[in-house]
Amino acid sequence: LPLKYLPDLDMAKQYDVLFRLLMLGDSGVGKTSMLRRFTESEFDSSHISTIGIDFKMKTLEIDGVKVRVQIWDTAGQERYQTITKQYYRRAQGIIFVYDITNEPSFQRIVKWAGDVDEFAPTEVNRILVGNKTDEELSRQVSKEQGSKLAKSYGMDFFETSASSDSNITESFTRITELVLEAHKADVDNLLGSLDEYLDKAGLEEESDRPRTENNTQRICSC
Ligand SMILES: Nc1nc2c(ncn2[C@@H]2O[C@H](COP(=O)(O)OP(=O)(O)OP(=O)(O)O)[C@@H](O)[C@H]2O)c(=O)[nH]1
Fold first, then answer.
1. Residue numbers of the domain that contains 39
2. Which of 29, 61, 103, 181 has the greatest CB tally within 10 Å of its CB?
């Protein structure tokens, strides 16, 4: 492989694997805010409802693996659900979000989870998140209720605040870890063959090089 291709190989190594995560929950629970907090370290107190679906990317390093996550932020509003359901199938991880100050948003997790059972692959990883813990005085759903529901679904549970940046990184990291664990065999295979490819590329490049005094010049000109 000619030396000039090496920078492209470096680009390819900026991340090892890409996963798709999906955020689901009622309108106003804070899905967009959690995602903005996680990817841009920002928070906005105004509510601009997501139209249809949007996504943001972030790279995490877990156990030495560079994982790029594409996080899909869905609109909680009913009218967009025909569109958003089309994305369930492509997700490897799902974050269910409710608002701890809004009991109906918690009750509706059952409905969101039911939709996922119907439209997402069965092996999809899931976590449950109760957001807005900074609004403790307005709390309507206890931590125990959240934890119990999560347990009944076999999900990990977090209480977060996008506003005060509590448990946001932890939640996104946990779902990414679960997805990575679930796909460990595939990832190992992929990384194994990529390493092999890079080693091979390095060897070929060595053997391509003319064994003359001009070696240095040739390397520099690339
Ligand atoms: N106090 C508090 N407010 C929050 C928090 N997270 C989000 N909010 C506010 O809740 C409102 C709704 O937040 P969004 O992030 O737009 O909610 P969403 O779930 O994306 O809503 P849709 O796009 O309509 O589905 C906004 O006014 C946010 O500022 C939080 O952790 N604490």
1. 22-183
2. 29
Which domain CATH number covers 69?
3.40.50.300
Residue the block writes with tokens 């295979």 = 189
Number of folded domains that form the chain: 1
Pairing relationship of beta strands 93-99 and 125-131 according to DSSP bridges:
parallel
In a domain, 200, yes or no: no
Ligand 1 atom with the smallest distance to the CA of 48 is: 16
Residue 50 in contact with ligand 1 by CB distance below 6 A = yes
User: Annotated active-site positions, please?
Assistant: 77
Q: In the block, which residue shows the tokens 């090892």?
A: 16
Do residues 27 and 108 touch, judged by C-beta distance below 8 A? Answer: no
Residues 126/94, Cβ–Cβ less than 8 Å? yes
Ligand 1 center–CA 43 separation, angstroms: 9
- Does residue 48 lie within any of the structural domains? yes
20-62 pLDDT, tens digit per residue, is 999 999 999 999 999 999 999 999 999 899 998 999 999 999 9
Name the residue with tokens 């601009």.
48
Measure 36 CA to ligand 1 centroid, in angstroms: 10
Distance CA 144, CA 166 (A): 18
ipTM score over 0.95, yes or no = yes
Q: What is the DSSP letter of 138?
A: G
Please identify, by atom number, the ligand 1 atom nearest to the C-alpha of residue 135: 1
Give this prediction's pTM.
0.83
DSSP state of 90: T
78 occurs within a structural domain = yes
